[in-house]
Each structure stands twice: as C-alpha cells, then as structure tokens.
Amino acid sequence: MLTELTIAQAHQGLKKKQFSALELCQAHLNKIKEQDKSIHAFLSVDESAALTQAKKIDDLLATGQEISLLAGISAAIKDNILIENVKCTAGSRMLENYVAPYDATVVAKLKKQGAIILGKTNLDEFAMGSSTENSAFGPTRNPHDLTRVPGGTSGGSAAAVAADMSIYALGSDTGGSVRQPASFCGVVGLKPTYGAVSRYGLIAFASSLDQIGPITKTVEDAKIVFEAIAGQDPLDSTSVESKIRNSKFEIRNLKIGMPKEYFVKGIDPSIERLVKEAIRKYEKAGAKLIEVSLPHTEAALPAYYMINPSEASANLARYDGIKYGYAALGKDLMEVYLKSRGQGFGPEVRRRIMLGTYALSSGYYEAYYLRAQKVRTQIINDFKKVFQKVDVLLTPTSPVLPFKLGEKIKDPLSMYLVDVYTVSVNLAGLPALSLPCGKVGALPVGLQMIGQPFSEHKILALAEIFEQL
Amino acid sequence: MITKEAVKHIAQLARLGLSEKEIGKYQKELSSILDYVEKLKRVDVSGVEATSHPLSMENVMRKDEVLSSKKKLIEGYLKVKSIL
After folding, report:
1. Ranges for the Amidase domain (chain A) (predicted)?
2. pLDDT of residue B70 exceeding 60
3. Is residue B32 part of a domain?
C-alpha cells in the first residue's frame, strides 16, 4: 500500500520509479476521502495545489534530476502554522476566515524541498487543550478507536499520520502538544529544543514555551523532517543554530535516568508496566539504568498553568475585532472589544485568558506569575543536576490511555492533569520525543525520551535503537 | 473561592464580554484551578531568580512592517472601525 510508506521508503520508490509522485499524492488524497469523514483530522484539503506540486516533482524525476528527501512526499500542517494564501484558523471562530499573507519559515523550508502539502490539520482552539475537543470545528477522533480522543493539541496531525492519510505532519508543542497526541495515536513525535526550529509564522500562544515539531511513522522520518526544518532564522529572534552535531555513542556507555517522581500514584498501571519493560530492554542491551530525582516535579504543572495562561492572555490581546478576524458590531469601541472577544473565542481560550489576566493583575502578580517563574528556575536546575549524572531521561509520555470523547471536557482541571509528564520539558526548553512502546488492547502507549538542550540527534539515535530491540 | 465581582473585573480587564451564566461558570472553574495552583506556595523560592525564557539571549532586532491579510486596502491603508 502506497499510503503506508515512510518518508525514507517513499523517497526510494520515487527515485526507482516504482510509482510516480502523482500516484503517491493521489493515494493519500483517496485515503483522506475514505477515512476523514469519521476521523476529522483535516480542517481543509487543497487537492489541486497538492496534485500540481506532485506533477512538478514527476517532471523533475523525468529529466533524471536528483530530488531531495522530502520532494514528492505528502505532508499535513497543523492549522496554526501559516501557508501563504491558505486559510489558517487556529481551530477558532476568531480566525475562521483568516487567510495567511505569508509562509511560516518551516513551510517555506518544506516547499523548497518540494514537499506536497495536502492540507491543514485540526487542533484545540489556539492550541489550548489536550484532546482536540476544543476545536471550534468539531473534534478529531483517534484512528485506533473512534470513540476516543487522539490527544492534543496536534490531534489532527497525529491522527492523519496514524491513519496513513499523510506520510508525516507538523505540529506545535507548548506543553506536550506534539508528544501526547503522538503517544495516543501510536506514532513518533519530536519536540525540539526551544530555539532549534523557527517559529516565524506559528500563531503565537505561550511564547517562552512554543516549539514546532514533526509527527512521523518512524524515528528515521522524525530525524529527516527535523533536519529539514531546524536552524537559525533571521525572522525569529529566539531561534538559534545548534552547536551540537556529533551524537555518536555506544549503548554500553549510556546512562539512562528514570525520574522516580514520574512513576507514582496516578499513572495507569498498564502504562507503567509497558514503559518499564521498554526501559529494561535498554538495560539488557547494555545501558546503565539509574534512578534519579527531579524534586520539583509536583510543582511543574501548577507553574505551567500559571505561565502558559499569562503568556496566552498577552499574546491573544491582538484579537480585538479591529486588527484581525472576527469582528462584532457595537455602539462604542469597548463594546466592539467585549463582543468580538466574548463571541469569537471558545470556552477554553476565554478560561486561559481569564486565568492569565488574573495571574498578571495588580495584587496577584507576585503570588502567582512571579512565583511560577521562580519555580520554573528550580525545575530547570533539577534537570541540570540530573544531566550531570545521566545522558537521557526515560518516562511515560502520558499517565493515561487515550480517553473517551467527552470524558474530561467538562472538568478543565482533569484535562490539565493529563499534561503532568510533558510540561516540565517545555518549562526547561529541552528536546523530547515520544515513541510507541506497546499497546493496551487497541490503545497505543508512548515512551518519552528527554535530552539535554540540542541533543536531538542523541535521543533520535537512542529511539532508533529501540525500534530494533 | 474568588468572588463574582472579581471574575467580572478580570473579564473587563481582558475585554471579554461574558453573560451572567458564564460569570458563574468561570467563578467555579477559576477557583478550582487557583486552588490547585496553591501548590506553588509550598516550594521554597527564597533567593531564587525568576526565569522568563529558557534560553539566555540578547535582543535581536528586525525591520517592523505591516503584512496585510485579505482585509481591504484603501489607498494603501487598512480600513478598520473608528477607534477615537
């Protein structure tokens, strides 16, 4: 089946002329037509643009030219990443008719390689949530069990890859939004180091936490996409060039840390068992296993849920009914603001804006926001200390299996608790990857690998070993 | 529990028009989240610097320019509601 191919396999197939780029693209478009009515991974599909691009790649191949690894390869892009002249909704009524005036740097890089962009994928509104149920355009369903959520917020991207509707996808990860849906959908998700990938053209949510990352079928593919999108960008002043290139290591010299705070009450026992089995496989292969402690882990989630809404409330101030998007009529300017924002934003976005505004408001700033930022320093120091002893940390990606649609949506705090293993990584700006490590019934379980800043190649290499164990 | 008045005040600061019913809902939800966040108070942060950004870097400037979306341009200007 053409749709089941990985990037590396499809590239070989194109080069050897086993199939054309047009056939490959058409196969994915057909798969979307068959599957996406029930899954709803895509918010929009641009069939003619995809087919036109595929023909171009076939023309290149016909003249015997070398093509890059991503040329002719189908991709899906989360709908908070801009593609020039394509609608970018961020899953919100606020931006329902917003057409992007330029390409995000990651999109420009993929286009330059000759990527085939199939369409835009569903997400929780403005990337706030953990299940993709907060999309203003309806939820996405988990391809492994349609009664369950695909995770979030990049749920559309993960579901599109898991259901073979796209070979790979881009997502964004502010507190686990690439890794957790990858875990729920049984695919690979990489959240790069803060600054490793340009965010120019990513709709800003919580700017000290957001990163763009790939969602793929294999670790090899994650590496291919990461290398294609990484690098310093003059258009994103927070982007940097990675200084670390060499990732060579021998498994017998590798020290793996297991943070004890990640294996406590609250984790699903079947997840704990599978993750521990996976870790034991590395031990058998020769790695040294060390139990470590990240003592401020319990404070990470509350710190995150102060910092994240605070930054969001500032970033989303731009949606005022004047500059962008949804605009309501009012008798004066204040009424225009109140109505446009009250009606244009969904319930979770309004909740975060309220929380953030509260945490930043006079009288509460020190007790909430400033305190959370100090706790953030403690969390970063925990990781620094631990990485003096070990090379990488292995943990579960999520404490729970993919849950039923509607199960957590009515209790916001219960939804926030799902992020308990992923948010620390964003607070500390570290790279981390989620890798499928088994299933409970039909439901996939993810193993999370956390590395030191700019050690993406090391965690990718380590993850690749797991696929062979 | 935060008061209804506090919720109304925050909504006004955030320029969010909410109905009475929504004010009641957010009062409950924000209170439960803020109770949870109380955990932060158990951490000893004396003498600890705040982190606003995971990388330490200096300001990097670029040219500032307006990129218009599909909204109508009139004589090169964006038409918006009167704000004065």
Report:
1. 23-460
2. no
3. yes
